[in-house]
Amino acid sequence: MGNTLTMKKICSNELYLVRDARRSALELNLRKLGVERLSKDDVERMQSDALEAKIGKWSKYLQITVKLLDGERKICDEVFEGISFNKDQCFSELAGTGVSVAKTLLSFGDAVAKSKRSPEKLFVLLDMYEVMHEVRSEVEVIFQDSSCSEMREAALGLMKLLAQTAHEMFVDFEELVENDTSKTNVHDGTVHPLTIRVINHVKFLFDYQLTLKLLLQEFETGSDTESQLAVVLTKIMQALQNNLDGKSNQYKDPALMSIFLANNIHYMVSSVRRSEAKHILGDDWIQRHRRIVQQHAKQYKMVAWGKAVQTLSIQVASSSGTSASSDLSSSGVSRAMIKERFKSFNMQFEELCAKQSLWTIPDQELRETLRLSIAEVLLPAYMSFVKRFGNLVENEKKPHKYLKYQPDELDQLLGEFFEGQQSVEQKK
């Protein structure tokens, strides 16, 4: 009986020695990491670059810590297999330092999730959520027993907090975009900086497409994650469109307003078509917004050029076989009227050239499309007017005062539209 007790005591002592040796090895490895405790205030004081660097280290440290603890858990299970010994308690004791380090790392994650929000911080949260998801299964195995339940629940709690905060930041960003009141004035009607920022934000989101789908499953496990992501993106895009509609009201010239909206919606559409977003938003979204661009282009052409084209339109009430030039009085058309129409057209065209050569359409395809649409309406009307009534002013002392432009000259000038202020200055 005494010998049995002695053997059990020796066996227990050896097991404790094993535990202490493993604990020392674990502590030594963890000390090399140099994990520091940081509060929410510390996080908020960091510049974005510094925070990203800390997150990078945090991810690496967390993965190393979990790997070390996972290794110790496996060793513990193997050593105490078949022995009447509380292996869970033993692991809990040897892993004390590791658990402490893990708690410090989790507290940092908690501080980041609870710190002041910004659009850029969403990507930080997605990075952290991705890492937590990667180590989740190992954490559940390592801390499976009741003595480690606090650690398991803390890790799962951080995952949920990161997911919840990221999800809320989608709503924050949508509201931020729709309510943006930045004073940046785009005088030439080009793409607004807000549009560029929002589209870049959406593009960056697609670097996290798989992570986003995992995150969205936290909230609607029964629905398709692509559909959920499509809803998120559609709301952001609609918020941007609503804001642009509001910003367009700054333009007193309705033609420039239409150019501004065509530019910005076209930028949205072309960016989506060239990115992964096209698979989420779908062809219907793309086609619908291309039609919106076309509507703004049509509105621009009507508002900007309607009056000039109307100037070139005269209804001649002449009898059959009688030309306008041979019977001016009976047709209701006088030489003075024709001269006035030529002068009015020249003046309107020059005013439009002066303004619209300063306006900017950065996309070559859209720029050429609008130039062509103007030419298709203006040039036939001008050529017809010159053919019908040009002879009435050709015999004037200064015919070039009225017949100021040849059709090819008009076409050439139209080709200089929408190049912007910089192009005009270069030509000077």
TrEMBL record:
- Record keywords, A-Z: Exocytosis, Protein transport, Transport
Among InterPro entries, the record links this protein to:
Cullin_repeat-like_dom_sf (IPR016159), Exo70 (IPR004140), Exo70_C (IPR046364)
> Mind telling me which Pfam families this protein's record contains?
Exo70_C
Q: Which GO terms describe its biological process?
A: exocytosis; protein transport
Gene Ontology MF term list? phosphatidylinositol-4,5-bisphosphate binding
Which GO CC terms are listed, alphabetically? exocyst
Q: Tell me if Transcription is a UniProt keyword of this record.
A: no
Q: Which residues form the Exocyst complex subunit Exo70 C-terminal domain?
A: 60-415
Q: Which domain of life is it from?
A: Eukaryota
Known role: Component of the exocyst complex.
Family under the similarity heading: Belongs to the EXO70 family.
Q: What is this protein called?
A: Exocyst subunit Exo70 family protein
